[in-house]
């Protein structure tokens, strides 16, 4: 088991390097002098010169890249041009808030999705089954920010129950999490439904029924455990989409996370911050995929480490 | 050719696909006929009637500058149709050759390219598009380019998979046996048979492109006012959510319906043309 985790982590290293190359390249592709770009629009000549010296920006690209990666290894992402504070410090808390939002959203999505999926598999061609399919379609077609606006309209303006934005209490989390979670729920419901139907047709389920177990035991104890394995794949994929979707949800609900920070940084052309956020986002996606790989192997013994 | 005709007949019996096809056709017709359909000039401001509720004169109401929301939404279909074609075109232009060469050539080049593609595919389109926007700067044209580029890895992987499948078929071996060159085999024999999955993907991606452009517009990184792009319209409408919710509701519903239609059409096409793929 440890060996499996280790090999998967090692396999992730080239991907991580690719991500650093990507982030490194972005700033170099912007027309102009990278030192001036990273120093910001209002930097003094001296500040630009210092930055050029510190990150070796007058040396060939491979040297620049080495300096960049060496900085990363020390946890140094540079300083924000807007606040002159280290990017690492600025990002920490915001990243946690984004993680909280995406985590709450995946809980909503899983809760609603798996429940709906099981019910529509056990009650085929019922109204519930139809509702699950409709939700799945609406989930991939509704603009993420628009479902947020509609939720604000319903539960904050029409019915003044919940705050429309900001952070600080559990109540602040509800609308953003539901808005972000609902659009993943449909996909999870559809996957749960189809893998549940497949599992219910298998021999061991027939055996369980033949033994005289109640339908409830057959479905929830025997079938569900096996049916959920493919759902895990979708779950990880959805978590990634929610991290991306958080950029929009945070903007709608003024949630002070990493996504909103990214949009602010782009507006202010704060490139060290942009670089840092893209790096954190990208690394998060890699981490999610890695966890997926490992949990998949844990759940399904047939998946062997390469 | 008859395989296509059989497909067409099967598509006619696919209810979801047909519904999607009708919505998509309405969308295209609205975009093409916008000047004749729109009751008002979408950019004409009437400050006396700003944020008016829906009425007979303005069925979707008016926005904060007194512009007719229905007319803007209708012209928005033109913007979105353009976005769809440009982005899908760019993604095809970049992804098909990359995937075809990678799949056909194989070897270490293929392995390295696909490892990179795997990493990029795991990122959401919106993030990739924002990265490209960071380089090019905001704007409608840049947004279309960004969304197209963001989709290249997906196309590359799709086409590579299709090429690998077709490459192993007997008739390709036969073509090689009679002495056809690689380029000719790839163009004449392999690629035409990868058309079905590419068509399906392009329909689904058309929807993603419209949605992503709306996201970028909403975030202020895509089309800029007064371009009547649906997401851009919503980013302004959001400020008046409390006093004039209709300005937010109608463009949002339009995006949802359009994207839903294209998704249904894509799913239908997949069921008919590419039964092996199954629901993704």
Describe the structure in brief.
The complex is a heterodimer of chains A (306) and B (280). Chain A is an all-alpha fold and 306 residues long. Helix content of chain A is 78%, strand content 0%.
Throw out a few tags for this protein:
A: 306 residues; mainly alpha; 78% helix; B: 280 residues; 72% helix; elongated
Structure report:
The complex is a heterodimer of chains A (306) and B (280). Chain A has 306 residues and is an all-alpha fold. Helix content of chain A is 78%, strand content 0%. Chain A starts with a helix and ends in a 7-residue tail after the last helix. Chain B is mainly alpha-helical and 280 residues long. Chain B contains 12 helices and no strands. In chain B, helix 4 (69-105) runs antiparallel to helix 5 and helix 10 (195-218) runs parallel beside helix 11. Chain B is elongated. The interface between A and B is large, with 45 and 40 residues.
**Assembly type of the shown chains?**
heterodimer
Of all chain pairs, the largest interface belongs to: A-B, 45 and 40 residues
**Structure annotation, total helices of chain B:** 12
Number of strands of chain B: 0
Q: Structural class, from secondary structure content of chain A?
A: mainly alpha
Number of strands of chain A: 0
Mean pLDDT of chain B: 86
Architecture blueprint of SSEs:
The complex is a heterodimer of chains A (306) and B (280).
Chain A: H1 2-29, H2 34-39, H3 45-54, H4 61-73, H5 87-122, H6 127-141, H7 144-158, H8 170-200, H9 203-210, H10 215-252, H11 258-267, H12 271-299
Chain B: H1 2-12, H2 15-32, H3 34-37, H4 69-105, H5 107-121, H6 125-136, H7 140-167, H8 170-177, H9 182-190, H10 195-218, H11 230-237, H12 246-273
